[in-house]
Design goal:
- By secondary structure, the chain is α/β, with parallel strands linked by helices.
- The chain has 2 domains: 4-175 and 215-239, NAD(P)-binding Rossmann-like Domain (Rossmann fold); 177-211 and 243-278 and 294-314, UDP-galactose 4-epimerase, domain 1, CATH 3.90.25.
- Helix content is 35%, strand content 17%.
- It is globular, with a radius of gyration of 19 Å.
- Bound molecules: nicotinamide-adenine-dinucleotide (NAD) and uridine-5'-diphosphate.
């Protein structure tokens, strides 16, 4: 059935690809974005499509639209971006959640929250299952994002219990792919940009901290499956690739795949940087029949190929923190 679907943060890295998928499926798609960490060029190719609308709006302000489904992705996601204006980041998560939930209540829409593995903080349980309550520093530099997303989850659950809003919560683990902002400061975009530019690769700390990287297309498939899951499965549900790599391994792989001559240089580890991160995706496997199909080597090769096609000078660094 064709639906009217709102994607907040729809011009971003994940949002723009989600909009593409939904437009291709024939849905009537509204992309809402304030372009803090993205630019219009991400969705320029969709602008001529009769089933695509672009709204420049800040989700901390109420929004009045008639839709059947909402994917709530609006929020800066890279540490350098969300720490640039931490108070605004918290407002985006909390007021953004209240605004989309209020809208969902009024027009009886189903609403999915893009939460994050950061709700687990620096985890003491490994791999992380949805039942794990996390180890977050509530007063640290990452708290604006981690606690903002945790508050948003609480709001989603309370609107669900109190107002019977049809909700979904997914906890997304590190995702990468074409259309990442080249200056977002995240590890994959940094390493690829540095390797292709012939610069040194900046490995923070000893490089033995781990992450599990999910390719963009796998993640988007997971988001859509979660939205379409039966109403008795609202999550939270982890979405990510369970294959764990150290940052040192990632740096070496990027050098190998780009053929770069870059040296690896060590820089200080950022505050509260989680040591290990790996999703347990049993729930997604059993409830959604979902698991990632793109492994890191293949996904990185596609991402590198995309980075080769862009001119980084065409991208506006959203913050000075890259
Ligand atoms: P992104 O920064 O590319 O996208 C976020 C989008 O939200 C941008 O287009 C930005 O301009 C927009 N935005 C920010 N604040 C806004 C506001 N106040 N009003 C309207 N729009 C606003 O990041 P992404 O990687 O595409 O992340 C999308 C969502 O997925 C985020 O909510 C993020 O927390 C979540 N997530 C992503 C990852 C990942 O690894 N990519 C991991 C966990 C969670
Ligand atoms: N990192 C790194 N070099 C960089 C950027 C990041 O070694 O140039 C490390 C960072 O310290 C962290 C990991 O890579 O341990 C992932 O960082 P990212 O900012 O991509 O995501 P997050 O920390 O939110 O998982």
């Amino acid at each position: 059935m064709l639906k009217r679907i709102l994607v907040t943060g729809g011009a971003g890295f994940l949002g723009s690809h989600l909009c593409e998928r939904l437009v291709e499926a024939g849905h009537d798609v509204i992309c809402l974005d304030n372009f803090f960490t993205s630019q219009k060029t991400n969705v320029a190719h969709l602008l001529g499509r009769p089933n695509f609308d672009l709204v420049r709006h800040d989700i901390t302000m109420p929004v009045w639209l008639e839709v059947d489904e909402i994917y709530n992705l609006a929020c800066p996601a890279a540490p350098g971006h969300y720490q640039f204006n931490p108070i605004k980041t918290m407002k985006t998560s909390v007021l953004g959640a209240i605004n989309v939930l209020g809208m969902a209540r009024r027009c009886r829409a189903k609403v999915l929250q893009a939460s994050t593995s950061e709700v687990y903080g620096d985890p003491t349980e490994h791999p992380q299952r949805e039942s794990y309550r996390g180890n977050v520093n509530p007063i640290g530099l990452r708290a604006c994002y981690d606690e903002g997303k945790r508050a948003a989850e609480a709001l989603f659950m309370d609107y669900h219990r109190q107002n019977r809003i049809n909700i979904r919560i997914v906890r997304i683990f590190n995702t990468y792919g074409p259309r990442m902002h080249p200056f977002d400061g995240r590890v994959v975009s940094n390493f690829i940009r540095q390797a292709l530019g012939g610069e040194d690769i900046t490995l923070y700390g000893d490089g033995f901290q781990s992450r599990s990287f999910c390719y963009r297309d796998d993640l988007i498939e997971g988001l859509i499956r979660m939205m379409n899951a039966p109403d008795d499965f609202i999550g939270p549900c982890n979405l990510g690739n369970p294959h764990e790599f150290t940052m040192k391994q990632l740096a070496e792989l990027v050098i190998e795949l780009t053929g770069a001559k870059s040296k690896i240089v060590h820089e200080p580890l950022p505050a509260d940087d989680p040591v290990r991160r790996q999703p347990d995706i049993t729930l997604a496997r059993t409830k959604l029949g979902w698991e990632p199909t793109t492994q890191l080597r293949e996904g990185l090769a596609k991402t590198i190929a995309w980075f080769r096609t862009i001119k980084v000078g065409d991208y506006r660094p959203p913050t000075p923190n890259y």
